[in-house]
Amino acid sequence: MLELEFTTIEEWDEAMWARMERIYHEAFQSGAKTKVILRSMLDRGVGYLHTGVHQGKVVAMAVTGLEEGCGPHSDH
Question: Does pTM surpass 0.90?
Fold first, then answer.
């Protein structure tokens, strides 16, 4: 069984993006959002990035979009 350490990223981290970018483009070969859009989602608090790390290497990633007003920068 593959054991992964999962991390949720709510603030843009250029070094972490560099570790996950290859996986992102492999998984979303068509319809991928640009880096600028992904970063904007995090900056506005309407999205997260997630990584799955195995033996120190990022082997999985995901993007979560949130409804406006429900993210970490909201009053809710």
Answer: no
